[in-house]
Amino acid sequence: MEWQAYLLVSLFSLITLVFVVAIPFGLPGMWMMLGLAVIIELLDTLVLPAPHSVTFGWSVLAISGGLGVVGEVIEAGAGAAGTRMGGGTNRGMWGAIAGGIVGAILFTVWLPVPLVGTLVGALVGTFVGAFIGEATGEESRLRSRRENFRAAGAATVGRLAGTLGKTAIAIVIWVLLVWNAFQL
To answer: pTM for this one?
Structure first.
């Protein structure tokens, strides 16, 4: 590999590492990383001669995309699963999902510390949404406030675990892409 190729692959590695770090803050870093890799692969196929026209390979990109979908499913389902494990209801699970989305959006505006507002908002919103979902359901008269807090707390822990799981999968994708890029 010539020095220019090493320079470009190193630049790709650094940029996509920033994308991975952005994931816990609610940004679509995994998809930005995969999008950049697809663009590079397309450009390589069109510009470079045949033996050098593969940076990652379409099979590696397909595997990375599949892992990305798994990461999204883990993140989306973890808050809801946490609610269920904390003794919550379906209403609390939907409240956790909706609250996480609304909280991330609102805290991005209300807490304008770059990226921190989104993360804090998603966690606070998950808790509040799950609690409201639990407290306003038909079964709420049969449940104590403590049980509602427990379900909401479990939803928040589940959401955090989902974000960490998605970030771990993004790290695996990053290593896979960088490894293959340096194999030119």
So the answer is: 0.77
